[in-house]
Amino acid sequence: MPRSYRNVTIGAFFVGHQQHLFDSFQKGLDAFARELPGIEQGNVEALHRTRVASRRLRELLPLLPLDRATSKKLNRRLRRVTKQLGIVRELDVLAELIDQLHCSGRFPPIALTKVSDALGRARDAARIRLVAKLRARKLQRLANTLQRVTKSCESAQTQQSDAGPGRTNRRWSWALDARLAHRASRVRTAIERAGALYAPEPLHDVRIALKKLRYIAEPSLEAGRPRLAADVAALKAAQDLLGRLHDCEVLIAWGRDAQPRCRRLISSRGANSDCSFTPSKTTAARCTLATCAIAPD
User: Fold this and answer.
1) What is this structure's pTM?
2) Which of 3, 54, 164, 193 is deepest in the core (most CB within 10 A)?
């Protein structure tokens, strides 16, 4: 795919009213604003849905007929929100994973408890920092700004439109095609860099690229492209699997950090067990967790 897509100003394609675009953006904005009260309340699902909505808005924002400076500024604000929510979200996911492993009965309860305790402390601290940095009023101001920008763009496009519906729809289709091509190119590059050998970080990059492609493919599906339904489903399945593997890798890292405390606890209880993380044991743990990732039930 040509790399020139990276520098395309998608707003230039629009000269008329683009109802599909504004409806998709408004849907994401409504989801973003609706979940904001739950963040300060510590609602895990509300935080997750807010983060997903922020990612969807970031993917659609370049499609709005905005000047480059405004678009970059809003995207930067949304990116900060996504990043700060992501710190807590990762810890929430790990806590859920530890609960699942507890229930499976396949892993030492002492080790899981020690990792869970350390994770819980980090999670509480991260939530305190999140509430301090992303107060509800600040997030609501961002939502209000996005709402004003959307309405302004929609109104301006309605007043200035002198093109017929067919021509307008073609421009909308061209814009989505350009964005899809750009994201598909990123996925291909990420897969090529990941190669054939298992490596956590390159695979995580593939997951991020898949997620961005999915978030621009879904509006295309909603705009009347049913042929993309199977592609979107495949992207989601791959994203979920790679996400689970990434969570298992992060949990292994937490296990390594908790290893000295775990060893001292086992020793103090007189247990005759070795909880060291040799390469072979780490590989075995990774394989076991990967099996859980593929078949979590």
Assistant:
1) 0.79
2) 54
Chain centre to alpha carbon of residue 245: 15
The candidate with the shortest Cα–Cα distance to 65, out of 156, 179, 145, is: 156
pLDDT (0 to 100) of residue 110: 83
Q: Contact at 8 Å (CB) between 173 and 33?
A: no
Residue 165's Cβ-count burial label (10 Å; 0-12, 13-18, 19+) is: exposed
Mean pLDDT for the chain overall: 80
Provide the token pair at 74.
Answer: 């809003």
Q: Which residues contact 235 (CB under 8 A, 6 or more apart)?
A: 210, 213, 214, 217
Residues in CB range of 65: below 8 A, 6 or more apart: 11, 14, 153, 156, 157
HEC secondary structure over 55-118: HHHHHHHHHCCCCHHHHHHHHHHHHHHHHHHHHHHHHHHHHHHHHHHHHHCCCCHHHHHHHHHH
Architecture of the domain spanning 16-294: Alpha solenoid (1.40)
Between 269 and 114, the more confident residue is 114
Q: CA–CA separation, 255 vs 239, rounded Å?
A: 24
* Tokens linked to 235: 């992207």
